[in-house]
Design brief:
The complex is a heterodimer of chains A (about 270) and B (about 375).
Chain A: E1 6-10, E2 13-15, E3 23-26, E4 29-32, E5 40-42, H1 44-59, E6 64-71, H2 73-83, E7 90-95, H3 104-116, E8 126-131, H4 142-149, E9 155-164, E10 170-176, E11 180-186, E12 191-195, H5 207-223, E13 233-239, E14 248-250, H6 255-267
Parallel strand pairs in A: 1-6, 1-8, 6-7, 8-12, 9-12
Antiparallel strand pairs in A: 2-5, 3-4, 9-10, 10-11
Helix pairs in contact in A: 2-5, 3-4
Chain B: E1 4-10, H1 20-36, E2 39-46, H2 50-54, E3 62-67, H3 76-90, E4 94-98, H4 101-104, H5 107-113, E5 117-128, E6 131-138, E7 143-149, E8 154-158, E9 175-177, E10 189-195, E11 210-214, H6 229-243, E12 246-249, H7 251-258, E13 284-288, H8 294-297, E14 305-310, E15 324-327, H9 330-358
Parallel strand pairs in B: 1-2, 1-4, 2-3, 3-9, 4-8, 5-8, 11-12, 11-13, 13-14, 14-15
Antiparallel strand pairs in B: 5-6, 6-7
Helix pairs in contact in B: 3-5, 6-9
The chains are: A alpha/beta (about 270), B alpha/beta (about 375).
Chain lengths: ~270, ~375
């Protein structure tokens, strides 16, 4: 395609996976204890979507990448310090309390509105990227909802591979049961692609890309206005699992003895 | 408010029946309908729905169907159109569907078209204060919540492995077929097949009784100061073959392939278990050479019995995450285990041959 693609990546932020999560009630809606103090990262599968978008844009002349993210502004700024060094993009920030307990319908609505408002976005060349499921709500519905609201009805979820064929059509591999992939051919944009891990490693930090990105990121963050989210979900309880196992630690046993014990365990119905 | 329930399913790849997950979710739908005093309707999509519908004939429910070549394979546009038509015909307040990959890709879009609301990965239902409530996990199986919604229709996509599969008498079901005419632009996307990853063997087996998880330790230097990758590959594959286990991997191991380090050749991101991977459901799990840190172990949430082999007695598994931790060299243990499994298989074969001579119909392997 001579004019390239307009790639919009939707990505939230989530607490660093190594952090301990403890729920607290904030009014009628749950939240995470010390949520604003927890180190945050770009949602992992959405981050893969960003890397795939940057790679595609680098190989399709005339392409451009936007990153649309709904999160508390201060946390988003913190995460962008790192993410901005990974890939070239224009940030479209939305200052909203979009954590795992926010309603996906409300989040999808503000993301769709933000995409609508992107100046110069050519919908006929639009590839809407995002994570298939987030590491917070993990519902796998937000991208579908945005797609419907933007009237994009060629949608793919759990995408691991995306190839532009010589005739401009798109070959897409989606994860299905049993570690297999469903292969589809789509005639072209606009499409929605909810990414799984894809095939690209995390790019190395590039300070030059970071500096170029930050020239537009900081003004965009300063301009963004706080948005509230409608909560349609009533939470009756939220708690971490209580199960703690009494681990039996077996030392000083030969490999033969351990193997025999494991065999007996495996063979039990 | 009187509720009415629509249960949705699609015909599986055989074209004759439904996926196991559908019968599990149907079991939950039947139970819920009984508890709510709600009417229950079934909607089925596929190239042909007759045989699949017959499996529900014993349930005594209304059955709606959308069939035709356009609905043989998963495709967002055609699946969404078919499901939308069924939902509009049934006009139910609660829609329950199984969490198959086909439905997970389309159900939210259908909910949006019907101005409904959706929650996925539901593990169970309950009635609280006379209202339907659903349980699901947040933050990748780290927090469990019970939720309610006032909005209707409420779409609930139920995870597999949470209920016993429904079974009932089969007969000839009465199906109300719905005609869904697809506009030509619905065919912008075409099905091009299903591909198995390019690996030596199929290592992901959702129905296996045992999950075997390999950690990054397999690729580290062993006591002789060398890595033994080829040996590790060989004995792991042999173990998978002998035991029928499904293979999982920790993120640290899977990521090494992306970083072009020497890794186990058959390990891909699809095998990854944990916070950024999958959360499989198997009755038993065996981990070797994996530290058992929290981001990985959240992927074990639905593994009932857990054992681990690791050289570090203070690894994460020792801190209440496994039932048994064997402090031992995994290379030695799995080699011995393979020998025992092979010997057991030979004994079983000999026993079957002997039984067959005595009673030709006696041993069905």
């Amino acid at each position: 395609m001579s004019n390239g693609y307009h790639i919009v990546v939707c990505a939230g932020i989530v607490p660093d996976p190594l952090q301990t999560l403890e729920p607290v009630m904030s009014g009628s809606t749950p939240a995470l204890k010390n949520e604003m103090l927890l180190p945050a990262v770009l949602d992992p599968w959405a981050a893969h979507a960003l890397y795939e978008a940057a790679n595609l844009a680098a190989h399709a002349e005339g392409s451009k990448v936007w990153l649309v993210s709904a999160a508390p502004k201060s946390k988003l700024q913190q995460v962008m310090m790192n993410v901005a060094q990974k890939a070239a993009f224009e940030l479209v920030p939305i200052d909203a309390p979009a954590n795992g307990f926010a309603d996906a319908h409300s989040v999808a609505e503000i993301l769709a509105q933000a995409i609508h408002s992107i100046s110069g976005l050519d919908r006929s060349r639009l590839l809407l990227f995002g994570g298939w499921e987030s590491a917070s709500r993990g519902a796998g519905v937000t991208m579908q909802l945005i797609g419907e609201q933007l009237e994009i009805t060629d949608q793919f979820q759990g995408v691991d591979r995306f190839t532009v064929l010589p005739d401009g059509s798109l070959e897409i591999h989606e994860r299905i049961e049993g570690g297999r992939h469903l292969v589809s051919i789509c005639s072209g944009p606009p499409t929605v692609l909810g990414w799984a891990t894809g095939n690209l490693p995390e790019p190395r930090n590039n300070p030059q890309v970071g500096m170029a990105n930050m020239r537009t990121i900081m003004p965009a963050l300063q301009k963004t206005k706080s948005t509230s989210l409608t909560q349609n979900v009533r939470y009756l309880s939220v708690m971490p699992p209580r199960q703690q196992r009494q681990t039996r630690i077996v030392k000083d046993r030969s490999a033969e003895e351990i193997a025999a014990e494991l065999l007996e365990w495996i063979s039990q119905e | 408010m009187a509720e009415s329930i629509l249960f949705l399913a699609h015909v599986d790849e055989s074209g004759k029946t439904l996926p196991k997950a559908a019968y599990e979710a149907f079991s939950a739908a039947v139970d819920l309908a009984h508890r709510l005093g709600a009417t229950l309707t079934v909607g089925i999509v596929g190239e042909g729905v007759r045989e699949a519908a017959n499996t529900f004939s014993g349930a005594g429910v209304r059955i709606l169907g959308v069939a035709g070549p356009d609905f043989a394979h998963p495709r967002y546009r055609s699946d969404a159109a078919a499901l939308e038509a069924i939902c509009r015909e049934a006009a139910a307040s609660i829609v329950i569907a199984p969490a198959t990959s086909r439905f997970l890709r389309v159900m939210a879009g259908v909910a949006e078209r019907l101005k409904g609301q959706i929650d996925t990965h539901i593990t169970s239902f309950d009635i609280v204060d006379g209202m339907l409530s659903a349980k699901r996990w947040f933050y990748r199986q780290r927090l469990e919540a019970v939720i309610q919604r006032a909005g209707r229709p409420w779409f609930l996509v139920m995870d597999c492995g949470c209920q016993d599969a429904w079974s009932g008498a089969q007969g000839t079901a009465k199906i109300e077929m719905i005609e869904v005419a697809l506009p030509e632009n619905c065919r912008r996307t075409v099905y091009a097949g299903v591909r198995t990853p390019n690996i030596d063997a199929q290592t992901i087996r959702p129905d296996a009784k045992l999950l075997f998880v390999a950690g990054a330790g397999w690729c580290k230097k062993q006591p002789d100061g060398q890595t033994h990758l080829r040996e590790a590959e060989s004995i792991i594959l042999q173990f998978l073959e002998e035991s029928g286990a499904s293979l999982g991997g920790s993120k640290s191991l899977v990521d090494q392939s992306g970083e072009n380090q020497a890794v186990l050749g058959f390990m891909t991101h699809l095998n990854q278990v944990g916070q950024t991977g999958s959360t499989p459901r198997h009755p038993k799990g065996l981990s070797m050479c994996c530290h058992g840190e929290e981001p990985h172990v959240v992927g074990w949430r639905f593994i009932s019995e857990r054992r681990a082999v690791n050289l570090d007695p203070n690894c994460g598994w020792a801190r209440g995450k496994a039932d048994v931790l064997y402090v031992a060299d995994a290379f030695q243990v799995i080699a011995k285990l393979n020998s025992l499994l092979a010997a057991k298989a030979v004994r079983t074969e000999e026993w079957c041959e002997a039984s067959h001579e005595l009673n030709p119909a006696g041993c069905q392997q």
